[in-house]
Structures are given as C-alpha cells and as structure tokens.
Amino acid sequence: MNDFLRVLLLQDHNTRVVMAGACLFGAASGLVGTFLLMRKRSLLGDTIGHSTLPGVAMAFLIAWAAGGEGRSFVLLALGAAASGFAGIAALWAVRRFSRVKEDAALAVVLGVFFGSGIALFSAIQDLPGANAAGLERLIYGNPASLTSGDSMLVAGVCLMIAMLGFVFFKEMKLVCFDEAFAAAGGWPVRIMDLALLAAVVLITVTGLQTVGALLSVALLVTPPAAARFWSDRLEIMSLAAALIGGLGAGLGVLWSAMAPGLPAGALVVLATSALFAASLLGGTRCGLFFQIQNRTGAARRLDREHVLRALFECGRDGTLAVDEKTLKSHRSWHTSSLRRALHRLIGENRIATDPANQGLRLTATGLAEARRIVRNHRLWELYLIEHAAVAPGRVDRDADLIEHAIDPAIVQQLEDTLDKIGNPGVVPANPEARV
Amino acid sequence: MSEIPLHIRDLNVAYGKKLVLWDANLTVASGRATAIVGPNGAGKSTLLKAALGLIPAASGEVRFFGQPLGRVRRRVAYVPQRESVDWDFPVNARDVVTMGLYRRIGWIRPVRAKHRRLAEEALADVGLGDFANRQISQLSGGQQQRVFLARALVQRADLYLMDEPFASVDAATEAAILETLDKLRAEGRSIVCVHHDLETVAGAFDEAVLLNMRVVAQGPCADVLSPENLRKTYGARLSLLSDAMHDLTRPHGPGPTGR
C-alpha cells in the first residue's frame, strides 16, 4: 500500500522521469497520429514500427563487434531510425516499380523487415558474451528502463515534433483534406508527406522504450481515433489526441508500476485503448451514449408533441376531453409509446383525466403548449411547401418558435396565409389542401 | 485581352502503357466559359489534371497565360471533383473555403479574421451564407459542391478549372453555379468545366471542346455541337443521343437536316 502511494504521488525521482518521458511521448504521438489518421495512412505507422527492428539489431551488432556494451539507447535509436527510413524507402520502391497496391506493399515491407529483425535477434541471443537481455525492452516496451538521459532525449524530440506540428498545422490540414487541390495550388505535397513520415519514424523511435516497436502504431492511431469522438474541428481534435495520448501513456506507466509482472508497453496501449473505449461510448460527437440519448430524446419529444397536437385537434381546439381510443386512431402510434407519452404529460401536469367521461383533456398549461406546437407545426408545413425549395437548410422544427429559425417577415407572411385559409385565429386543418 | 488563359499543345498522357490522351491540342478563349465534353473514359478529368501537373504527362506543352503554371499559380483556381475528398473530415465550411486563401496567406502565417471574412463572403456568394459553421459532412452533396466553388472563388483567379461541378447536384446548386459562371464571365474571367451532360452544354457554356482521347472539335458551341462531330466523339453510342443532338443543334444554325 505504501508502494502504491509512492508511485501515485511520484515520490521517486525515477518515477517522475519515466512519467514525464512517457506522457510527452504519448502527447506527441497523438498529435502526429492525428495527421497520419487524417491522411488515411494509419497502417503506415505499423509498418514503420516493425521496420525499426532490424536497425536495432544491427546497431547492437555493430556496437558488439566494436567491443562496446551495445545497450546505449542513443545508439540503438539511431539504428532504429535508419532502419525505419529504409522501410519507407522500400515502401516507395515497391509502389513505384510494381503495380502492387498500397495495402499489399505495406504488408510486404512489414513482413520483410520484421522477419529479418527477428532472425537477427535470435542470432544475437547465440552470440558469445553479448548481453541481449536489454533488447527485449525495445520490442515490447518497458518505460521503467528510461533513464534521465533517455527521457531528456525523448522530451527534446517530442517537443520539436509538437512544435513543427503546430507551425505547419495549416499546411498539413490542407494536404490531409484535399491533396489534389493542394498540389494544384503549388504546395509541395510530396515533401510534406515525407516530413510527416519522418515525424512518424522519429516518434516511433522515441517510443521504443515506452511502448516498443510492435505496438507503436497503437499510440499513433488510438488517441486521434478517440479524439474524433470529441470534436468536429481538426484543431481541437489534435489537442484532444495529444491529451488522450499523454494521459494514456501516463496511466499505463502507473499501472505497470503497480503490476511489475505485466509487460509495460502492453499496459500503456491498453490504458490508451480504455480511453478510446470511453470516448466511443461517451464522446460528445457521435459517441454511442449521445447517439442513443439523441435518438430516444428526439423520439420522446416527437411523441409528446404529437400527443398534445392530437388532443388539441381531436378535442376541438382543446376544449373537449378525448378518450384514448380516439387518440389512438388519430395517428399510427405504438400503444406503449402513446401510453408512456401520456403518462409523462400527466406527470408534467400538461394533461389531466376528465372525471366526467373518462377521457383526457389539456390543462391550461398544456393547452398553451399545444397551441404553440400546433401553430409551429402548421407554419413549418406551410413554409416547407412555399419556401423550402429556396432555403431547405433553415427548416428546424425543434426550434421553440419558428421565429427563432426564420425571418419574422416570412413568419408574418405565413400567418397571413393561414388567416386567409380560414379557421381564423388558429391554423388550417391541412395546409396541403390549398396547394 | 489577347492573352490566352490556357494553351495545351500535343499533350500525351498514359496510365502505364495505356495512352489516355493522345496529342491533345486546346486553346481556351479568354473571358468565356468552355465545356469539355465527351464519353466516359474519354480523358476529360485527365486533361485538367495533366494540365495542372497533378498527373505526369508523357509529352506535350501546357501554358497558362503564356507561361508555365509555376509562375502564374495565383491566376489559376482548381475545383476538384466532389468525390475526391473525404467529407467526414473534421472541418467546417468556412475552413474549407479559407483553404483557397492559404496560398495568399503563405507558409506558417496564421489565418486571420479578415481571411475568415473573405471566406464567409465567398460562401454567401454561392448561397451558403448561413452555413459557415456547419461541419462539412452535415452539408448536402450540392452544398458541398458549392463549398468547393466558393473555395475557388475566394482565390479571385483569372482562370477557373472545374471538374464536373454539375455532377449530381440539386436545382438550387445548379442555379448557383450557373449564376457564378455568368458573374465570372462578366468580370472577364475564363472558365473551363469538365461537363457530362450534353443537353445543357449549349445553355451554360459559350464554347465546347469535344474530347475522346483526342480533341475532336473545339470552338463556339453552335459550331462544335454538330451531328457529325458528336458522332465522331461518341461513336456507336450515337443512336441514344440523336434526339438530344436534334434539340441541341436546332437553335444554333446548321441543324440536322440530313437526319
């Protein structure tokens, strides 16, 4: 329990270093990933991640041959970066000189690089005197192995990338949205794509210790995918992605500090995925919860308005009580939803059961609301018939008053039309009849 | 005045081994609206894209206002096909239109309030004044097309290259585009449109280019849209078109007397 608190309160210098490095990496990864996702190149992150492996192994071998320890992160990171760029070059070559499609090219390059990486790793295991134990942490990730120096390096690279992302945000947005338009406008689309890939390689390499090579794609793609559930603006979405990435990485590191037996990289990815799941469910934009709530909310509102309107129309402008049977035949309701709507309206004191003849009648407040609803509906119906061809975008039946959505002058004109049709003071029984 | 907005000479474009444009020659008249017409797969969009350098040309020369495109980019605006982008992209209509100003704003510099205002004015010009804040996936197809048009308008270019702006749009959008074409012409700007609908060519455009892998005919609509030329362009599919052709050519002189 004491250990738990120590970790949670970041009391150890080492924990603080690891946390800072992991969070910064997560944030930068989310930002770069936003562009990658928007450019529809998510899987490229996977291929780049896997293609860093042979570079790590080669760097280790070179250091070993030179008599060194071969475990310095900087050296291994350089090897990983070189190998990542080689992976990109291989991808480009496959695409350029063959008719292989993008997805197949990604799979081919991933296979070749990952395969050779694995082969080299087993060769290293058998080398006499080489201590290859430290290499594992770069494949599966182990944030606890971050030293202060490593963390500084990670922080430096991440800050640089985040700054570049901020500075060239507008240009990247353009290229991601409409490549052809950008190219026609003279923007160097190829170079910007290459810059994005370079950023992905750098991020992947800095994340080797946090999530490892194999899962690096998860921290590139999951945060922006989650962020998409929170915003419709790329600016906000990218900030949210950085936040989710940083938070996910931080939570993952805490989790792994409390569960030392489990692979830390996987926990970081799982923590980020949990944030994705939360966004999928609770996101304000198309999150499942909001979708369901909107749908049931809209259905309920519609039922409520229909009941009030039906009572108003069947009961001679709300003056008479109406029995449930008449109400039911007035419109094609589900009995259950009609009952629920009636129940809610009684609860809200909009309608009351009439003691005399077992029917339902509108209360004073209910009558006022019904009158407003019926007027709104009829005016909208008229508007749809007369003006909507010109301005369909203005139709918003949920607006409390039609005046909130369209010009009062037009409302006045519609009212005049209604007056002319008859049933003065109220509304026509059927606006379509006059067309 | 005599400056030729777009001059294409012997343009050849190949996809792999297959030649899709064959020695295309084209001179766009200044201050007029030109339609590029032809059957599916005739290379209409390819012609625009190759002229803009979006796809490599095997050979040929393209001159905008007598110069290579790189030197006159500000005078040329491009309206890609609506289907070419993902409309679920997290931007609103104003953001998209502002993209037409990025070139003028330049690298790194931020979008300012005055740019946003210009974008809103362009949106109002195409009848979308109230939609600036609308996420683009919440727009109808026709409205999306108009957003693209506004993005080109905001560039205040001298030559507008549009790829199928009339493809599957609603009546309001069609009217808005036609009105825009008129306004641009009145200001002396030139327009080149890839167009799919033979029946509306003569009504909306001054000039026509008939294209089927090579340029079959070009010039004023009345001269170009003859049964002879259409037969050469559309080949065997002509039988389907004969009625349309009849309607097309009748008001413009020669008429299909031999039909």
Describe this structure in words.
The complex is a heterodimer of chains A (435) and B (259). Chain A has helices at residues 2-8, 13-38, 42-51, 53-65, 73-97, 102-125, 136-140, 148-167, 169-177, 179-184, 189-206, 216-227, 234-258, 264-282, 288-314, 324-330, 335-347, 364-386, 408-421, and strands at residues 351-353, 360-362. Chain A is an all-alpha fold and 435 residues long. In chain A, α2 (13-38) packs antiparallel against α11, α12 packs across α13 and α12 (216-227) runs parallel beside α14. The model of chain A is unreliable at 424-435 (pLDDT under 50). Chain B has helices at residues 44-51, 93-98, 102-105, 113-125, 141-153, 171-186, 198-204, 221-224, 227-234, 238-249, and strands at 6-15, 18-28, 33-37, 59-64, 76-79, 159-163, 190-195, 207-212, 214-220. The radius of gyration of chain B is 19 Å and the shape is globular. The termini of chain B are far apart. The interface between A and B is medium-sized, with 29 and 35 residues.
